[in-house]
Specification:
Helices cover 49% and strands 12% of the residues. It folds into three domains: 129-326 and 334-360, P-loop containing nucleotide triphosphate hydrolases (Rossmann fold, 3-Layer(aba) Sandwich), CATH 3.40.50; 366-551, 3-Layer(aba) Sandwich (Rossmann fold); 556-592. The chain has 21 helices and 15 strands. By secondary structure, it is α/β, with parallel strands linked by helices. The chain has helices at residues 3-15, 46-86, 92-115, 130-138, 146-156, 171-185, 199-212, 229-237, 247-257, 275-278, 284-293, 309-315, 333-343, 383-392, 408-420, 434-445, 479-486, 507-517, 528-532, 535-551, 556-591; strands spanning 161-164, 192-195, 220-223, 242-245, 269-273, 299-304, 320-323, 357-360, 371-377, 400-404, 425-428, 451-454, 467-472, 496-502, 522-523. An eight-stranded parallel β-sheet has the order 3-4-2-5-6-1-8-7, with helices on both faces. A seven-stranded parallel β-sheet has the order 11-12-10-13-14-9-15, with helices on both faces. GO terms for molecular function: ATP binding; hydrolase activity; RNA binding; RNA helicase activity. Residues 152-325 form the Helicase ATP-binding domain. Residues 370-532 form the Helicase C-terminal domain. This is RNA helicase.
Length: 592
């Protein structure tokens, strides 16, 4: 996507937003191609205009075709002459063109091979026990990913580890495997605590622990909001090996039951998954309350898809850092020596603990090479129509799809609209109860519905192998959110596609995303005539969905809570002047 053209487009749109002109999205647009965006006032005449344009284009195509036929005849005559003169040998120009094509293909292959990591080790060579290796083989996992190969040995050696890698690169197994191995050597509860920012991710991590830990009769418990605290307290009292929790609910249990009752004094591992999100201000108080009751002698593991300065600061200025080695010699000995040196780095503070091992996978782009990333440029009032067109198209009608919406109300309205259109779907957002969220995920995982509509609560960590398409109905304002959204497909080496629906007001956001991922999106081809054929049907469906949403009282509980907070704020504000007057009166009396 060319920045110069986008800048011009943005200026044109800001000057006259209601005129949907031809807005090219990149330099590679074919010369002569036209893309008209209809306005609301032009909807009735749109088909007539298109027919006229098609007639004009047909006339032009006939002229061009005639010229091309003449050129072909001349080229055939020239080829016959060259064939007679050179004995039928191909021309020098053809040889040059073939060589250039071969070079371009080789360069593309080199780029793909650089982005893909091929491990030369197996899991046994990383130090994992045979029972874990067999469990991985049963899951058809035979070679470690880059993050696994570089972090597992250091975790087994007892070091704190900070790991950064793309979404879908196997970060969960990178900390789960060494934890399970150490647990099998000295089983007790509570052995490890895993903290996650979302409830859905907590349940998913628990599933992976269960699958990998079958050989040792693993006991785990998920502690998240939205479920009965008493039931959770009983489960915690049974000393599970692994606690997977969201920070807020775990802190609630610590405050109500106490750390001693929860048996947290001997915790061996603390894991922060999606550490960039957990270390934000949102979870600061909850994390502080948890850290106070955990033993100092523990291993702390941080994993994330987006390495931030806040995460690296935790390792200290002299922390050992390892990145993808590119030694000049072919055997990689230079890189191995570097890794050995960093693993021996010791803290000089007197505790004798080694510095945290930091590994960040190097890559030219922050999304995997097997992911196709495209955009569809559309008028804002036709977003639902384009969405219905894409979901009904032959390419995606039967594919497992996640649609990301910006807000809960928008996600619920979309669910009701698609239901009116006969498209089976389910939703996932924070306005749903925890049981409703679990039921929705179960339907989507089981293939009962092929479409899941989610807010960003579903953008982190969800690993559903069947997902082949991610649709960004709303363009995320933070490029980090985009990376996590599209990371729900093309996981673990599989293929996938991400399509972002871009309106005239989203151009700058897309530019920021492309700059962050260091990759240009391609335009996904659509037929505007076919899209507009669905306009009346989609408009009627959306109207019915809006009425159903209003009648359901969606968001009523949230509105009541907001009104209560506003009332409390007003009460506090009204009481302040009285207090100030009393203080001033007391101050005057004391002076007298």
């Amino acid at each position: 996507m060319a920045k110069a053209k986008l800048a011009k487009t943005r200026k044109a749109v800001s000057a006259e937003e209601d005129d949907y002109q031809t807005l090219p999205m990149k330099n590679t647009a074919k010369k002569g191609s036209k893309r008209t965006q209809p306005t609301e006032s032009d909807e009735e005449d749109f088909e007539d205009m298109e027919e006229e344009d098609e007639d004009d284009e047909d006339d032009e195509d006939d002229d061009v075709a005639q010229l091309e036929d003449d050129d072909e005849l001349e080229e055939e005559e020239d080829d016959d002459v060259e064939h007679d003169e050179e004995g039928g040998q191909p021309s020098e120009q053809d040889d040059v063109e073939e060589e250039e094509d071969e070079k371009e293909e080789e360069e593309e292959e080199d780029i793909e091979s650089e982005d893909e990591f091929q491990s030369k080790k197996n899991f046994a060579e990383l130090g994992l026990s045979s029972w874990l290796v067999n469990a991985l083989k049963a899951m058809s996992i035979r070679k470690p990913s880059e993050i696994q190969e570089n972090c597992i040995p250091h975790i087994l050696s007892g070091r704190d580890v900070i790991g950064g890698a793309k979404t879908g690169s196997g970060k969960t197994a990178a900390f789960a495997l060494p934890i399970l191995q150490r647990l099998s050597e000295d089983p007790y509860g509570v052995f490890a605590i895993v903290l996650t920012p979302t409830r859905e991710l907590a349940f998913q991590i628990a599933e992976q622990f269960k699958v990998l830990g079958k050989g040792i009769n693993l006991k785990d418990v998920v502690i998240v909001g939205g479920l009965d605290m008493m039931t959770q307290a009983i489960a915690l009292s049974k000393r599970p090996h692994i606690i997977i929790a969201t920070p807020g609910r775990l802190r609630d249990h610590i405050m109500s039951s106490g750390a001693e009752m929860m048996n947290l004094s001997k915790v061996k591992f603390l894991v922060l998954d999606e550490a960039d999100r957990l270390l934000s201000d949102t979870f600061a108080d909850d994390l502080a309350g948890i850290f106070k009751v955990l033993p100092e002698k523990r291993q702390t593991l941080l994993f994330t898809a987006t390495m931030t300065d806040a995460i690296l600061e935790l390792a200290g200025p002299d922390a050992a850092a390892a990145t993808e080695d590119n030694p000049e010699d072919g055997d990689g000995s230079e890189g191995k020596e570097k890794k050995k040196e960093t693993s021996r780095t010791v803290d000089k503070s007197g505790t004798g603990r080694p510095k945290p091992f930091v590994y960040q996978c190097k890559a030219n782009v922050q999304t995997v090479s097997t992911l196709k990333q495209s955009y569809v440029f559309i008028p804002s009032y036709l977003r639902e129509t384009y969405l219905a067109f894409l979901l009904r198209s032959e390419a995606f009608a039967k594919k497992s799809t996640i649609i990301f919406a910006g807000r809960c109300k928008g996600a619920e309205l979309m669910r009701l609209t698609l239901r009116e259109l006969g498209i089976a779907c389910t939703a996932l957002h924070s306005e749903m109860s925890q049981q409703q969220r679990l039921d929705s995920l179960a339907k989507f995982r089981g293939g009962i519905t092929n479409v899941l509509i989610a807010t960003d609560v579903g953008s982190r960590g969800l690993d559903i192998p069947s997902v082949m398409l991610v649709l960004n109905f709303d363009v995320p304002r933070d490029p980090t959110d985009y990376i996590h959204r599209v990371g729900r497909t093309a996981r673990a080496g599989r293929g996938g596609q991400a399509i972002t629906m871009v309106t005239e007001r989203d151009i700058e956001l897309v530019q920021d995303i492309e700059a962050r991922i260091n990759k240009t999106m391609d335009e996904y081809p659509t037929s505007e005539n076919k899209v507009l054929e669905l306009l009346n049907e989609v408009t009627s469906a959306k109207r019915a969905a809006s009425m159903a949403l209003h009648d359901s009282g969606f968001g009523e509980k949230k509105r009541i809570q907001k009104q209560k907070r506003m009332a409390m704020t007003m009460d506090d504000a009204s009481s302040r002047p009285k207090n100030i007057k009393k203080l001033k009166t007391k101050a005057k009396k004391s002076k007298a």
